[in-house]
Amino acid sequence: MIDNPQKIIEQPEWFIKIIHPEHRKQFKIHLKKLLDSKKRHVIEYKLNYPEDKWHLLKVNPEIHNDGSVTWYGHIEDITSHLEYEKAMENIVYDLSHVLRRPVANLLGINNLLQEEQNLNEKDLKKYSKFIQKASQELDDFSRELNDIYQKKREEVMITKINKKLIQ
């Protein structure tokens, strides 16, 4: 991310310039609130240096007896975490929307089968094909969902390992 953290302290205007233009105004507003309130703040923002990456800034003040303030902070790349959260949101959406159709079909077929008094072989084959199609949809989707989850999990784990190796 930033190869020289001291540069942020010595040249804060440089740091403001590397914040993504869409987030710069809001970041300045948060920064002003932080300096005025002299309270702990957490700010999420996106940098456009060297590429679009999301970061989290955690800042804590230490107020001295003479009224001066020493700020302590931590900047963390949270891009992979946000991507993971988005993937989980997509999974929840898929579970609640994509899976509902084949499940609703299966429930509907089940209701029809329970209501039918005299099922012939032709009707049973027809219902069987509906059940097979809905079951296949569920199987295909659950496999696809599992693959997506595993890939995202591996990406997050690789990112965590790389961070530990850098530290």
Written account of the structure:
With 167 residues, the protein is an alpha+beta fold. It has 2 domains: 72 residues, PAS domain (Beta-Lactamase, 2-Layer Sandwich), CATH 3.30.450; 86 residues. It is 66% helix and 16% strand. It is built from 6 helices and 3 strands. A 3-stranded antiparallel sheet has the order 1-2-3, sandwiched between helices. Helix 4 packs antiparallel against helix 6. The protein is elongated.
**Neighbour order of strands in the largest sheet:** 1-2-3
Which structural class should the secondary elements be placed in?
alpha+beta
Provide the number of structural domains.
2
| Cα end-to-end separation | 13 Å
Rg on CA atoms, Å: 27 Å
**Strand and helix order:** HHHEEEHHH
The biggest beta sheet reads: 3 strands, antiparallel
Low-confidence runs: none
Q: What is the number of helical segments per DSSP (H or I, 4+ residues)?
A: 6
Share of residues in helices: 55-70%
What characteristic shape results from the CA principal axes? elongated
Instruction: Report the count of strand segments.
Output: 3
> What is the oligomeric state here?
single chain
Classify the beta-strand content into a percent band: 15-25%
Mean pLDDT across all amino acids: 82
